């Protein structure tokens, strides 16, 4: 896809996520990586439900604003993920209700904060580590994200929300939706006896559906 098509894709999926209630107000951001390493990212203080292609920011590899409206103040952690995950071509970061609720809990295991409930959770999300809390816009968050991005296609920012990457924006959106639905299942199950996927089942899924 060329740059114009990718800009249109961001507008389309931003509206879809907003319409499904996964994005609200001016929270959250989307990005895609171009072949030259620059990224297109949603602008600061913009609503994903009301974007135009011309608004989308273009940012260099070192974070310099090239074109469009001023970029999201969280563009720096998008760049950190892209640096560590060469196969990643798109990132979705939202503040959807159930996933954020999980991010606000205390977890015994911060390296994987959701139990293995479904096959598609394993296939599209994998292990979900919790990144320690940093205030929005704190550049130290980029280094914390960088430390986990190489091994994880999704991570959860404490008291904030998920970052999900994918080989295309469509795949990143689908994975994000799977994460939110898994978080919803987590709360629906509550304290009831839980049938987790076994280690053998998880290994089989990872071997059959790598990446």
From TrEMBL:
Residues 8-187 form the Class II aldolase/adducin N-terminal domain. Its EC number is 4.1.1.104. Its cofactor is Zn(2+). GO terms for molecular function: aldehyde-lyase activity; metal ion binding. It comes from the Bacteria. Keywords: Carbohydrate metabolism, Lyase, Metal-binding, Zinc. SUPFAM superfamilies: AraD/HMP-PK domain-like. GO terms for biological process: pentose catabolic process. It holds the Pfam family Aldolase_II. One of its GO terms (cellular component) is cytosol. It catalyses: 3-dehydro-4-O-phospho-D-erythronate + H(+) = dihydroxyacetone phosphate + CO2; 3-dehydro-4-O-phospho-L-erythronate + H(+) = dihydroxyacetone phosphate + CO2. Belongs to the aldolase class II family. AraD/FucA subfamily. Catalyzes the decarboxylation of 3-oxo-tetronate 4-phosphate to dihydroxyacetone phosphate (DHAP) and CO(2). This is 3-oxo-tetronate 4-phosphate decarboxylase. It comes from Neorhizobium alkalisoli. The lineage of its organism: Bacteria, Pseudomonadati, Pseudomonadota, Alphaproteobacteria, Hyphomicrobiales.
């Amino acid at each position: 896809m060329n740059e114009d098509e990718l800009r249109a894709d961001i507008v389309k999926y931003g509206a879809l996520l907003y319409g499904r209630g996964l994005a609200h107000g001016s929270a959250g951001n989307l990005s895609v990586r171009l072949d030259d390493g620059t990224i297109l990212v949603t602008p600061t203080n913009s609503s994903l439900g009301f974007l135009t292609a011309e608004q989308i920011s273009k940012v260099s590899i070192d974070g310099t604003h090239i074109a469009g409206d001023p970029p999201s103040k969280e563009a720096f952690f998008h760049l950190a993920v892209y640096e560590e995950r060469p196969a990643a071509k798109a990132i979705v970061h939202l503040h959807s209700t159930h996933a954020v609720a999980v991010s606000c809990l205390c977890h015994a295991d911060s390296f994987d904060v959701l139990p293995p409930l479904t096959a598609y959770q394993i296939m599209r999300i994998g292990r979900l580590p919790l990144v320690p809390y940093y205030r929005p816009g704190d550049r130290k968050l980029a280094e914390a994200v960088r430390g986990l991005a190489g091994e994880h296609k999704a991570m959860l920012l404490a008291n904030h929300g998920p970052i999900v990457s994918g080989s295309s924006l469509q795949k990143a959106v689908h994975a994000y939706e799977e994460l939110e639905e898994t978080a919803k299942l987590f709360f629906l199950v509550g304290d009831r006896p839980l049938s987790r996927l076994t280690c053998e089942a998880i290994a089989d899924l990872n071997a059959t559906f790598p990446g």
